[in-house]
Lipopolysaccharide biosynthesis protein (Liquorilactobacillus nagelii), 487 residues
Amino acid sequence: MGTSKKAIVSGMFWTFSERMAEQLVSVVVTIVLARLLTPDQYGTISLVTVFVTLASVFVTNGFGTALIQKEHADALDFSTVFYFGIVFSLAVCLILYFVAEFIAVFYHMPILTPVLRVLSLQLPFSAINSVQQAYVSRGMNFKNFFFATSIGTFFSAIVGITMAYNGFGVWSLVWQSISNTVGNTVVLWFMVKWRPIWAFSFTRLEQLFSYGWKLLVQGFLITLYDNIRSLAIGKFYSARSLAFYTKGNQYPNLIVTNIDTAMGRVLFPAMSKEQSNFFRIKSVARRSTKLSSFIMSPLLIGFASCAKPIVSFLLTDKWLPIVPYIRIICFCLLVRAAQTATLQAIKATGKSNLVLKMDIPVRIVGFIALMISLKFGVIYVALSDVIVEYFCLILYGVATSRTINYGLREIFWDLWLNVLPALIMGLIVLSVDSFLSGCPVIVVLLLDILLGIFAYVVACVILKNESFFYIFSAIKKERSKRLPKEG
């Protein structure tokens, strides 16, 4: 039985609300911490986080997705993954404890040893959380995500800011990360009715692993590729250069990741319920690409256009070197909406092997681009990201063309319809900025935002943007339904 539109819309609402709430708190926290801490301290934690992130892939990826995709997953499946995740995550923590000292020696940074050992303690909680998220996703009860994430993020914000204000430096970032994961997991534990039973099945584990291992490998390759740039920059350049590169990536990704995660969480379980109806999967994928890019495009291009006054006003001038990175990454992420929709569509059809086959050449191209760009400077490392993102979308388009008949021409057209009015907006904002160079930063920023919103709406109306009128008509229809009740 297919997933109702009401369930999908409700899931989108609560998941998007969750991501926006987390984004709001995260933005405030990163701004405050960036003012209190130095770029070198950020560079240190950025390097350590890479190793924990890579380790967490083995703890959280694969099995959670397999639980969502399996048509009749029961209590034994969830309990098996739960117990295996805890044991495996503790083993990973032990490995990180012993290799931490070697990593610190390799990078000539003694502080990495204790920081990495402490930060790895969040892995068992991540393992538990991945099972909780799979259970919530299967039930399409995304309201729980909203409350758990909001409470966990707010709690970690208090911890991080308080410690940074009291001079704990890099440790404020460490405990902010740990408290976020722990808080999220604890809240979900009390909110979600699911509890593991005292049972374990190697047969079920093997069945889930047969589907999940390909996604685990794919997730590891993506995470390794995403972070190998930080590892290389940390080794061949300074911690300060790494901080500027990381921060320049962080803020555009705050926009995209929140929307991207919201769409992915809802799309995959929704599409999985329609896994034999390829026409329906294509319809959901196209609508997702259009609506998601309609939201992402003006935010990314608007952010790129206003990057300099935003950074100067919020983070102070010491962080202005991140502006070029922000602009490059914003352009790079314009295709992420289509990537997410096509990837979830492929996974929903059960072709996890196809996902892995596509991802290997993407990572090879990415590694080659990194090796070449690393010789010329960090800014060229950022530019190499653009090559990989667009190459990745092309491969995904080829795959969806063969599986659900959603080809590259349709994908790029669905994106272009929303990117074009956003580009018009961005060019107008940049043109006006050149005449406001002598004005206070806050005045420039406010004028940029107001002008950008006005220009984007006008461009959408003139170009008769489909997504704009779709959302406008949906709001109007919903309002007309409520008016009689209010009367």
Residues 274-487 form one domain. Residues 202-236 form the longest helix (35 residues).
